[in-house]
Amino acid sequence: MSCINLLKKKEQDSKNNLYHIAIIMDGNRRWAKKQGKMQICGHKEGFKAVKKAVCFAIIKKIKILTLYAFSSENKNRPKSEIIELMELFLFTLKSQKNILKKYNIRLKVIGDIKYFSKDLQKYIRLIEILTQKNSGLILNIAANYSGKWDIIQSTKKIIQKFKMGLLREDQIEENIFSTFLSTDHLFPVDLLIRTGGEKRISNFLLWQIAYAEIYFTDIFWPDFNRYIFQDAITFFLSRNRRFGC
């Protein structure tokens, strides 16, 4: 298919349709410092902002919301902070179980979860199973995640399939490769939002954001609300998406 025809098809399919939003939730620690509070307070307020974002995504009928909660590089932070984060993560999963059911949300944790405690790994799998038949918003939580790791693990899976004779070399193309990523068969990212004032993508969904529109805001994540979310969506709708053509 020619570049022009591909562009037309993309325009017809998804030019102004917003299926998948991804957010780099940055600024919890700086928010806490500015408020004169402990870092864990910033993370707790950050989880409250997650609830607001999820609710607004449901109202706007977004199909997929992917949140960058914990990068692979975050493991280099002080051990005490990581432990607090993991405990907060586990508590939040347990406390929100009924909410996920009530609002028909399907939860999936993407990333190398082997780093987490056995209890947290077990509960992640339990929540994923309990919500796998929910047909509303798909909520991806990227935890101990990196875009490079995602591409490497996908490549390894393809090599295994190839060695087993289940995949031919001529079958390996973009669509096939995408199905081996942690986001599986989901739509690629349409809109990437980053809070906190930094203007970089920090090794997040490197494959999936290839043609995403990117919206940066100086607002720290704990202060993120529906008005800022709407500003990002309005920005997206104003864009002329060309998909590289």
Question: How would you describe the overall organization of this protein?
Answer:
Helix 2 (28-35) packs across helix 3. This protein is α/β, with parallel strands linked by helices. Residues 1-12 have low confidence and may be disordered. The chain is globular, with a radius of gyration of 18 Å. A 6-stranded parallel sheet has the order 3-4-2-1-5-6, with helices on both faces. The two termini are 12 Å apart. The protein is built from 9 helices and 6 strands, in the order αβααβααβαβααββα. It has one domain (18-149, 188-237): Decaprenyl diphosphate synthase-like (Undecaprenyl pyrophosphate synthetase, 3-Layer(aba) Sandwich), CATH 3.40.1180.10.
Helix and strand arrangement:
Blueprint: H1 3-14, E1 20-24, H2 28-35, H3 39-59, E2 64-71, H4 79-95, H5 97-102, E3 106-110, H6 118-131, E4 138-145, H7 147-163, H8 174-179, E5 191-194, E6 213-216, H9 226-238
Parallel strand pairs: 1-2, 1-5, 2-4, 3-4, 5-6
Helix pairs in contact: 2-3, 3-4, 4-6
